[in-house]
Sequence to fold (588 residues):
Amino acid sequence: MTNYSLRKFKNQLFFILCAACVIIAIIPLLSILYEVVSRGAPQLSINFLTQKDADGGIGPAIQGTLILIGLTSIIGIPVGVLSGVYLAEFGNNKYAASIRTVNDVLTEFPSIVVGITAFGVVVLGIIGSYSPLAGAVALSFILIPVVARTTEESLKLVPNSVREASLALGVHKWRTTLSVVLPAAKGGLVTGTLLAIARIAGETAPLIMTILGNSYFFQGFSSPMDALPLRIWRDSLQPYANLQAQGWGAALVLILIVLSLNIAVRVASRGRLRR
Amino acid sequence: MKKLTGDNLFRILAASIAASAVFILIVTAYTLTTGSSLVLQRFGTNFLFGSNWNPVEGREAFGALPYVLGTLVTSGIALLIGVPLSLGIAIFLVEMAPKFLRVPIGYLVELLAAVPSVIYGLWGLFVFRYWILDYVEIPLSNYLGWIPIFSGTPFGLDIFTAGIILAIMIIPTVASISKEVIGAVPNSIREGAYSIGATKWEVIRHWVLSYGRSGIFGAVILGLGRAVGETMAVSMLIGNATGPAAIPTSLFRPSQTMASLIANGFLEATGPLEKSAYFGVGLILLLVSLLINAAAQVMVTRVLKVKGGAVEQ
Fold:
């Protein structure tokens, strides 16, 4: 074999290997989707989605996840968005640079550590018992840095001429930011926030020691609560086939929530985020 | 002092809310430190280097060493398998894939990151575990069982399975950052290499990868951070050994990582000392992840400065 054809052969081999990497990575995704749908779909029924445990449903878990998403959004989104506004509009200094670094570090925090923190602060301290609020605090610790980051990025995409036009009309900077810049960046803000919510909806580790789990519907802010990921985790470790099947059903509901948020966002933002 | 106009007020308000990030960091560090003070005072450095985990009253012993080692070994496996795959994907997406395939394949790989950890665990427990057991572990153990790292009776719930699941889970992180880094390599570099007659493989191997190596290194470290902090899937697949049995001696034995120990045991902790021990493990995990992330931030930000055409000098 000549040197030239050997090099050509290596080149071909390399191409095939890279394509194989893609296929290997996509197999788990397809298998997960297939198994969750094929094992979870037979579980789905109105009863399954709305009744409590004793009546063969995962209603409390779905309700809990929705409550957690709501509470976390109430705590996390305003804080995250305002942080992002500061970083984008006033962030040309050392203070902002260090906030940015801390945000980046927080984004990669192990979620279980956040769970212990919320346990120490809210469950042992402020509330004194397992509570939906403890779960929401833990999840907002995860949400805030992500929302701050996406807010900053989408505000930076707003052209400066828009700000200048508003300022030239004599509008104050704060008014410009809130009424002109934020609305202009609305699309990016909404998609980024929805992606962050999709991420926290599937978080399990910080919920273990904060909301604990419950087989009844919401019982107030100082009682344990259930959530979909928590239900999947507990069901999967049970030796009973009917509970394992319930786990797959819950997994299907959770994955439908998470993936539909993701896909919707991607389809909606196609073209806009093209660089 | 500046006059307190609406603009200044708004800036100060936004600045103080932006400080919430620092607040979260401090609260976390403070809670974990005070929470673990009991166990740290009682055992000191033995907490880091001991390997027993015994909550029985009067004979308490808590050591985190097996879980630190378990974390290192599973993350190591994840990098060993996940990084080459991710690089292959990144190279395929940037350099090879036909245009119409790039976007959909990129989406699919990113969807891997969207699947919640607990669903990886569920799938691992009921599906993937048997693939690994039947097609990898049993053959390896039959033919190579005399090598210490393949010893033991494979069961499917062990370090090996946990490591592979972690490898799958870090692919989207490593692949997407590597993709950015490779995409940021200026075309003039490629053109120069092609013009002296290099094949595509040679261009990528000798020019593109070496140009982007510190960025790719940063991507690998971020992947390591993901693997170290990953909790649910690992806790469901690693077999939950505690104490000296959790020291990773063979790939086919159960073990425990720091994160999975906390997930599996935290609620069952009986006394204040045991609870404090879990806080202590959390503290070690936090410090490890801070260290890894600080390293990754330095590597990645240094490289991404190159982006946008402005090559740093």
Q: What stands out?
A: Chain A has a mean pLDDT of 92. The CA atoms of residues 4 and 270 of chain A lie 43 Å apart. The domain at 57-159+166-268 of chain A is CATH 1.10.3720.10 (MetI-like fold). Chain A touches chain B through 86 residues (CB under 8 Å).
